[in-house]
């Protein structure tokens, strides 16, 4: 729970840095709102397709544009007039088109797109050389479809879907933060003559792989790829030497590449709800790790298959403060965890299968409680 809250706060904080910038009144022929009377930030509640009264604004002063109007469908070519734009945030259920002219926003540093229907990650954004933070969210998995429809009724299906995040070496060279969460659903429909209805089955699609080129993002400090179906990380992910935060929660990963142990600047690693059957030994070399979430991992063949006595050696992780092993089917933990007792602030062992007693090099519930006391959640 503490880690979930941390990421929520981290997400909200990305907006907090801009919330102090006030926004000016923008006169749309559609609905518009007054945003704090600042000339640098526009919060638009309306459609970009409607005309803008440019007599009311100074486009040279606009550095932030937020459009969280849920019926907006596109960002038009006119976006290019905001030459000094550094932050563009779009949240809309209907959004599906980002103008190719966005590549002319040479000063853009942050781009946030949150949509149910975005058709692709527009190629033009790959040329935004100053882009430092990129967030792409496409999540329509909450859409509900009836299992049966009368014969002849229209069966809705998503026309626009992102299914791959791909780019080439040289793209996003200055990127520091990358957040990708893409999930969409398609429907397979079979007509049943006996009942005169369509039988429909929903199938959810996600990203299955990370491109090898992601390893060339040498300035990357934070990488969040969550709720996908990624099985393997790129072999050279260890090249991301500046990476400090890595969130791979809710994927299908069962092992880590050899280069993973080279991520020596990593401070936060969240890799819960994957398919590991033990804590990968490569993690033991991450000497600057402060926060490790390895909760609710299990082998994909059996929900209850996980290393009984946790053999992972904690002794090198001297900076570790927060450890989440909740939900793991473990009986005991290697005694090396005692060696890092001084810095540990919280260990979550809730919903584990800990035995009370010790056994050889492995300690159970009683010893853990004696060593960590109120810093331990059982």
UniProtKB/TrEMBL annotation:
UniProt domain Disease resistance R13L4/SHOC-2-like LRR: residue ranges: 213-325
Signal peptide annotation: 1-18
PROSITE patterns: LRR
UniProt cross-references to Gene3D superfamilies, sorted A to Z: Ribonuclease Inhibitor
InterPro entries (UniProt xref): Leu-rich_rpt, Leu-rich_rpt_typical-subtyp, LRR_dom_sf, LRR_R13L4/SHOC2-like
Keyword RNA-binding among record annotations: no
Domain of life: Eukaryota
UniProt keyword terms in alphabetical order: Leucine-rich repeat, Repeat, Signal
Signal keyword on record: yes
Pfam entry (one): LRR_14
Protein name: Leucine-rich repeat containing protein
């Amino acid at each position: 729970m503490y880690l979930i809250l941390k990421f929520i706060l981290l997400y909200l904080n990305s907006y907090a840095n801009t919330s102090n910038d006030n926004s000016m009144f923008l006169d749309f022929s559609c609905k518009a709102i007054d945003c704090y009377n600042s000339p640098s930030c526009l919060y638009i509640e309306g459609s970009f397709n409607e005309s803008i009264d440019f007599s009311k604004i100074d486009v040279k002063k606009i550095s932030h544009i937020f459009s969280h109007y849920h019926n907006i469908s596109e960002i038009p070519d006119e976006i290019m007039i905001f030459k000094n734009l550094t932050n563009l945030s779009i949240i809309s259920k209907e959004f599906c088109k980002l103008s190719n002219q966005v590549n002319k926003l040479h000063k853009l540093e942050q781009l946030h797109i949150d949509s149910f229907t975005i058709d692709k990650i527009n190629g033009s954004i790959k040329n935004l050389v100053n882009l430092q933070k990129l967030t792409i969210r496409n999540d329509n998995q909450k859409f509900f479809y009836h299992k049966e429809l009368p014969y002849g009724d229209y069966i809705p299906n998503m026309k626009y879907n992102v299914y791959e995040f791909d780019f080439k070496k040289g793209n996003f060279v200055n990127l520091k933060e990358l957040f990708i969460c893409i999930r969409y659903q398609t429907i397979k429909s079979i007509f049943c003559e006996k009942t005169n209805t369509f039988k429909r089955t929903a199938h959810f699609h996600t990203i299955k792989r990370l491109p090898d080129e992601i390893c060339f993002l040498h300035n990357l400090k934070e990488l969040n790829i969550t709720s996908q179906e990624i099985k393997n990380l790129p072999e050279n992910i260890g090249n991301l030497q500046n990476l400090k935060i890595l969130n791979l929660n809710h994927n299908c990963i069962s092992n880590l590449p050899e280069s993973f142990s080279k991520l020596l600047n990593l401070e936060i690693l969240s890799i819960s709800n994957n398919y590991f059957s033990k804590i990968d030994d490569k993690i033991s070399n991450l000497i600057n790790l402060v926060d490790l979430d390895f909760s609710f991992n299990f082998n994909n063949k059996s929900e209850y298959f996980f290393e009984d006595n946790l053999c992972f050696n904690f002794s090198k992780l001297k900076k570790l403060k927060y450890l989440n092993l909740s939900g793991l089917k473990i009986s005991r933990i290697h005694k090396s965890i005692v060696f890092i007792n001084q810095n540990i602030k919280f260990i979550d062992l809730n919903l584990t299968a800990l035995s009370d007693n010790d056994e050889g090099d492995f300690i159970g519930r009683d010893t853990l409680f004696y060593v960590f006391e109120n810093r331990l959640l059982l």
